Amino acid sequence: MTSAKQTQVVITGVGPVSPIGIGKEEFLAAFQADESTLAGNPPRAEIRDFDLGHYLESQKTYLDRCSEFTLAACSLALKDADLQIAGEARWRSGICLGTAYGCVGTLQTFTSLLHEKGARLANPLLFSHAYINTPVSLAAIEFDLAGFHSNVCHGSISGSLAIAVAADAIRAGRAEVMLAGGTEAFSQPLLAAQQDSRPLGEGAGMVVLESADHAQARGAQAYAEVAAWASAGGHDSVVRASDLVHVGTGHADVIKVSISHLLGDTLGVGESLSVITAALTMADQPVQIDAFDASSGALSILLQSVSRGEA
Amino acid sequence: MSEQSARVVVTGLGCVTSLGHNVDDFWRSLRENRTGLSRISRFDPTGLRNEIAGEVKEFASSEPHDRAVQFALATAQETLTDSGLSETPSEHAQSGVVCSTNFGGADSGEQYLTSLRAGMPDPRLWTEFQFNHASTVIAERFGFYGPASLLSLSCSSGTAAIGLAMDWIRSDRAKVMLAGGHDSLSYSSLAGLSILRTITAEQIRPFDKRRSGTIFGEGAAMLVLEELGHAQARGAHIYAEVLGYAVNNNAYHLTAPDKGGAGLRWALQFALDDARCRPEELDYINAHGTGTPYHDVAETLAIKTVLGDHAYRLPISSIKPALGHIMGGAGTVEAIATILAMRDSIVPPTLNYEEPDPECDLDYVPHQARPHQARCAVSISSGIGGNNAAVVLRRWEQA
């Protein structure tokens, strides 16, 4: 799956928006302290008192909660990477987002009003903000990301698969810089459909990916390298995805990182927050080889430490 | 594309559209300049901007799934049968799926939200509404246990799906990929597209001076993409080679097109770069051609910017007046039309084109299919949110 000749893809910025903390410092402190915000029955980890104005300079008229989380996470990740996209670089800078449900809360509002008032009085603003790709489009517009663009809607692996697709886009020369990660927001339709006792969380997690050369040229420091990824389906998919990614890189010894015990199942965003957790762990405690296994949903991403100053 | 990248070929085609429930019927109707547009019959279209759509009539399926998923399943079966892979389940781990949709299981989504308003949410409807339901059901049904994904990039989704599948074969993550899109017409999505005035109140007329919007349709379309050596080893019939693709975003406005066509221009340029194809090597363009006032100008400008004078020397057509804009599957069904146009040396027409627009001054193949030799072609897609995608295809010359 990977070879030594491939372009190295590194993580140079992180933007966690989660119930246990928003922004790198808050998030790092909370997961190191093992702080869960899961509460209630069934258990839910909700982001409270969220104000997009803290993270974004432009004013917005209407946004779905899912779009708000996405924009905040992108803004935090870009600031953390000390990166602003401008000029012709916009065509080589892209975004790949993962979400299982997107703006289903706005879709509910749109259809309720449609049901009440009829098609001639349907609300165009709500409709345009109800698409599942609205958050990724808004982020591209807000941060001038006119390059490679994708929106992965593949259940619980959406966020991690988005990071995988983005890393591949850089390796294939389709982009130099990518924002990638996942987003999910609680809404009545989503919560009403989850009738079991499974703990659930919400949030967004974005990372800035760039080629090691690009990062080095601008003097950016990397948290970790995206070394490999693998995905598999079928009954033994988790085992096969892990095997594939380890065989692909020759690294058999891995440390698995997961924060689902703190956040519950965060659906499309979960594993992207775990990728951030793993990257921060490695940067905080450098080791020669470390790894991350986002095997929930049968997709593994292997992160590898990078020596400080190397990228 | 690196020197070592695998070559990717198309070995299976399948579709369900208002022009026909399989590729043969679809292609015959397209060549015969027919249209599948008609008055919507599945629900009361009163209040919509147009009561006409590319509705799939007389479609019967015993699958216990949402209509959009039924389209996808029927299409997957046809595509795999066409490729000769439906009876050879021996390499599942190296076979994957990329599906695309704009609205998921839209009927089920509407019914779920209705059940929620009534205070009795039905989780089964929620499951059928899931965007990745079709890709998951297809992967399980056919045992495709390699990498899988669902992309939703509005109306560029079907082209983006081909691109991701191609990348996964190029990077040796799979030998065989089923790729394509699906969507069904629903009252709520058409109401939204009506109020945005994306839908015309009259006739869909891409590139015509009097154009005033598009007409939507429904259905599904899929391709089997395969690594060349794998296809040759099993003696598969090869339709075409996928040379390259690109997908990007205007980064301009959520619903308004970039009138200058800059995003489309770069999507087309990057796709040609990826394909290592010079603009003058193109013999045909299957345009997105929605018939909306600004988009058709932007697309024309983008083509002229990238192709220069060559833009005036090749045919360009939009098949949307024939089957409607089938949303998540549009890019894929247009890739199928492009592949068959190259195979049969005949390009499909742009129906309803009558009055030239000085801002759209290329050869749009009005009214009638035209005999034309094409070796290399590109299919272009765009969508709400500012998405663009383009895929470059080459006719396969049998050795």
- Give the tally of structural domains of chain B: 2
- Secondary-structure content class of chain B: alpha/beta
Number of strands of chain B: 14
Largest sheet of chain A: 8 strands, mixed
The beta-strand count of chain A equals: 10
Number of helices of chain B: 12
Give the strand line-up of the largest sheet of chain B.
5-4-6-7-1-8-14-13-9-10
Properties at a glance:
heterodimer, A: 311 residues, alpha/beta, Peroxisomal Thiolase, Chain A, domain 1, eight-stranded mixed sheet, B: 399 residues, ten-stranded mixed sheet, two-stranded antiparallel sheet, 12 helices, 14 strands, globular
Structure notes:
- The complex is a heterodimer of chains A (311) and B (399).
- With 311 residues, chain A is α/β, with parallel strands linked by helices.
- Chain A contains 11 helices and 10 strands.
- In chain A, the strands form 2 sheets. In chain A, strands 1, 2, 4, 5, 6, 8, 9 and 10 form an 8-stranded mixed sheet that branches.
- In chain A, β1 and β2 form a beta hairpin.
- In chain A, α2 runs parallel beside α5 and α6 packs across α11.
- The radius of gyration of chain A is 19 Å and the shape is globular.
- Chain B is an alpha/beta fold and 399 residues long.
- In chain B, the strands form 3 sheets. In chain B, strands 5-4-6-7-1-8-14-13-9-10 form a 10-stranded mixed sheet, sandwiched between helices.
- Chain B is globular, with a radius of gyration of 19 Å.
- Classes of the chains: A alpha/beta (311), B alpha/beta (399).
- Chains A and B meet through α3, α4, α5, β5 and α6 of A and α3, α5, β5, α6 and α7 of B.
Tell me the layout of helices and strands:
The complex is a heterodimer of chains A (311) and B (399).
Chain A: E1 9-18, E2 21-22, H1 24-32, E3 44-45, H2 65-80, E4 93-98, H3 104-117, H4 124-128, H5 134-143, E5 149-152, H6 158-171, E6 177-184, H7 188-193, E7 200-201, E8 203-211, H8 212-217, E9 224-231, H9 237-249, H10 260-263, H11 270-284, E10 299-304
Parallel strand pairs in A: 3-7, 4-5, 4-6
Antiparallel strand pairs in A: 1-2, 1-8, 1-9, 6-8, 9-10
Helix pairs in contact in A: 2-5, 6-11
Chain B: E1 8-16, H1 23-31, E2 38-39, E3 52-53, H2 67-83, E4 95-100, H3 106-117, H4 123-129, H5 133-142, E5 148-151, H6 157-170, E6 176-183, H7 187-195, E7 219-227, H8 228-233, E8 240-249, H9 262-275, E9 284-286, H10 293-307, E10 316-317, H11 320-323, H12 330-344, E11 346-347, E12 370-371, E13 376-383, E14 387-395
Parallel strand pairs in B: 4-5, 4-6, 9-10, 9-13
Antiparallel strand pairs in B: 1-7, 1-8, 2-3, 6-7, 8-14, 11-12, 13-14
Helix pairs in contact in B: 2-5, 3-4, 6-12, 9-10
